[in-house]
Fold this sequence. Notes:
573 residues; alpha/beta; 15 strands; disordered N terminus
Amino acid sequence: xxxxxxxxxxxxxxxxxxxxxxxxxxxxxxxxxxxDKPNAWVDSLMTKMTIKEKIGxxxxxxxxxxxxxxxQDSVTKIITDENIGGIVYFHGSPTKQALxxxxxxxxxxTPLLVAMDGEWGLGMRLxxxxxxxxxxxxxxxxxxxxIYAMGKAVAVxxxxxxxxMNFAPDIDINNNPNNPVINxxxxxxxxxxVTLKGIAYMKGMQDAGLLTTIKHFPGHGDTDVDSHLNLxxxxxxxxxxxxxxxxxxxxxxxxxxxxxxxxHLNVPALDTTTNLPSTLxxxxxxxxxxxxxxxxxxxxxxxxNMKGVVKFFxxxxxxxKAFIAGNDILxxxxxxxxxxxxxxxxxxxxxxxxxxxxxxxxxxxxxKYFTGLDHLTAVQIANLxxxxxxxxxxxxxxxxxxxxxxxxxxxxxLKSLNPDLKTLIIHIGTKAATVFxxxxxxxxxxxxxxxxxxxxxxxxxxxxxxxxxxxxxxxxGIYDPRARPKSTLELNLSLYNLISKLAYGNxxxxxxxxxxxxxxxxxxxxxxxxxxxxYQMSNETQHAAARVLEGKLKASGRLPIKxxxxxxxxxxx
Length: 573
């Protein structure tokens, strides 16, 4: 079969060119450039607020849109009673979220800063919206202009739904394959690749007018503990932290990052206080981030209800310490009213200068002004879901998946595939019909398909192996249907043995629609006739893989992590 480079319609090329060339030379004003400038709107609000109302601006509370009116009324009451500064949305639907945003903004005395943790866009949290690829998938792409274009598109979606801030990108260097919390959320384990792609994504969002937070400072990539459940430790010396973990943050700050999100990490080399999370460390936030690295933007804590921060500092103590440490915004406090009262008491007792409070609040209000909240308008509900799933977004998501696909072995083999030969298509890890199978069956005219998962019997597997001799070509897909793919698959030993036999038989083209770290768990996978890393089980990656096998797409991705000696960083044919 002839393999040709994928071609994009002219309008896609033209649009990408516009997106990736405008505003990249600094013509557009940035949030960082506006922070210290005089502002009458900000000054007017500062003058009118009481100390308690100012403290309320520091907090961002959790909000869901899939709950009843009683819940929504309770959220409204907290916002109005405490003059809460912002909200963070989680799962729900675009329309319900927009309606609730309009309701809460109308009720709030001070315009709310509305945010979401959308590392792969709105689809990470909302239904009815197709997500962008995971950051680890994006790490394989060789053209960072595409990452910038994605950043702009994500920002447009956020702004369309009435949000002003995205807690993204994740610029942690994931150099621990067993990291339970970062992993596929990172661009990979190479500091340069992570940095360049993180900055491209950040700039794309910021150039479109969205506030961002690079995370998780000072670096969450080499941890084996989930900070949602406990306090991880970074037990490295300053030289290692400076040259690796902090490297992307230093570069992104110089590139104009508007926000930094602080991780819950114990880092003895930076602060020797026992069991102290970095979110509560003044040496890490004020001395290192603000003074040494010169960061002037918004400093946001990671969620203040996570065990990594409240385990050793319960009952509001964590909130108070986080405020003193230098955070401007406290995200998702266990009890914002209790925390606000503790901060107020500390100010009244002279433990915290009021100038520190005023400095934080002014920065927050400047962020609101920068994003247009001084002239707040309601989110338009009509055509909202359709706008978020427009044809450009869908095409861009497919292009990103196309460009990520990585041929680790057998480039010449792929060119020799014949659609007329008797072909067996094996699907391992799912019994649900796949896009990959649908696409292949439209091209390979003489084919059969079989689906196997943990419910499959040894008899089925043995019969499959016996029947392999009857097929001239064998194509296998390995799938992980989990929304949060891990470094190991939930396959039983029989299926792992089957994968090994398929690979060792040197007859099968294997496509891994799963976290690429899983490649290390397959015995003899390197012996397969051909091997494609597809990174995740999305419809887009399945479309892309089928087109590679059909000779309609040339895979150009490169492995963004080291798997083992067979597949080092940068592998790809």
